[in-house]
Design brief:
Layout: E1 14-18, H1 24-31, E2 35-41, H2 44-53, E3 59-61, H3 69-76, E4 85-88, H4 110-121, E5 125-131, H5 140-152, E6 155-163, E7 174-182, H6 201-205, H7 220-223, H8 276-281, H9 295-303, H10 308-328
Parallel strand pairs: 1-2, 1-4, 2-3, 4-5
Antiparallel strand pairs: 5-7, 6-7
Helix pairs in contact: 1-10, 3-4
Length: about 325
């Protein structure tokens, strides 16, 4: 057993993942040496996908509003205060700058369920991920309320914008990462510093160039020849549509992979969209990671995921600077 991945009693560091999706965060924690005790997810396709990739992790397949802290601990085999990390990425569409950004969007209230579980479980540390739209404009008040609510659960909590492309992920993906440390640990929460330079996607998926991918739609095929590296088709569309259709620049990281984008990013040298393997690799999943369903489901799962290498960096930082530090005290 690697002593760097254990607590003062010789046990593996533990995590419960809420809003687990297909397992982006879960894979990050696994790579950092944590043992996942429970995953919480309601989407059928995400759960089916998660189970195939993490067969040894118990899954609560259902609505988190119906999951009590007591049941959560029973399923995970843990007690109040024992868990090392509670992780969660509550659905964020209501905060996203790509949406209407309504303050009272019901999708914005799911963080309260996360906070409820947090208060009942009292883990040593929590990690909450969301889109940067929650700290911009009118939504900043919602963000401040979230921080206040999390601190009232008994934690020191701070948020920071992190871009995955500085953490061994060949994709520019900015997210707000809130890390909290239980008050009695007497340690200030902190975030990992950038670890890598941006990685050009050609280095990661160049070997797949001739393996093909989904064909362009009739509409998007008109614009692909006009696009320069990094340009969006919205520049040429008469109504500014197709903003998600971007011709990748092989010498830079990919832009953010979005969920449910009808005209997503396309290849730089071939008139096609990206294949499943390419999408996985530019999000730092291994190319043999299993996702159930057609390419649209693959985009949905990946678009909703925290890049595994980003979460690995966060999990390792928490392990080395908070959990192990606490054991030395």
């Amino acid at each position: 057993m690697n002593v760097q991945n254990v607590d003062s009693n010789g046990n593996n560091l533990t995590v419960i993942s809420t809003f687990a999706g297909c397992g982006g965060s879960s894979l990050g924690y696994k790579l950092a040496g944590y043992k996942e005790l429970l995953a919480v997810e309601w989407d059928n396709n995400a759960v089916e996908t998660f189970k195939l990739n993490f067969p040894d992790v118990p899954v609560y397949h259902g609505d988190i509003t119906k999951l009590t802290g007591k049941e959560c601990m029973r399923l995970a085999g843990t007690k109040i205060g024992e868990l090392d990390v509670l992780d969660g990425s509550p659905p964020c569409q209501g905060f996203s700058t790509a949406g209407k950004r309504k303050f009272d969007d019901p999708r914005n209230s799911l963080f309260k369920e996360y906070a409820r579980i947090l208060k009942e479980l009292q883990p040593k540390v929590f990690v909450m991920e969301n889109v940067t739209g929650m700290i911009k404009g009118v939504m900043k008040q919602a963000y401040l309320q979230i921080i206040k609510t999390l601190r009232e659960c008994g934690y020191r909590a701070n948020g920071q914008v992190m871009n995955a492309m500085y953490y061994n992920v060949p994709q520019s993906r900015q997210r707000i990462i809130i890390i909290g440390v239980r008050n009695d640990l007497n340690i200030e929460p902190s975030h990992p510093k950038p670890q890598t330079k941006p990685i050009p996607i050609q280095k990661i998926i160049g070997h797949l160039e001739n393996q093909g991918g989904p064909k362009l739609t009739a509409c998007s095929s008109k614009y692909w020849p006009l696009l320069k590296y990094g340009e969006s088709a919205s520049k040429y569309h008469p109504k500014g549509h197709l903003f998600g259709m971007i011709k990748l620049n092989p010498f830079k990281p990919s832009p953010t992979i979005l969920k449910s984008c009808g005209n997503p990013v396309c290849h730089w040298s071939q008139p096609r969209f990206l294949s499943k393997k390419e999408l996985l690799l530019i999000t730092s999943f291994p190319e043999n990671f299993i996702i159930i369903g057609e390419i649209g489901k693959v985009r949905d799962r990946i678009g909703n995921s925290v890049p595994p290498n980003l979460m690995k960096a966060i999990a390792e930082h928490i392990k080395n600077n908070i959990l192990i530090q606490r054991n030395k005290q």
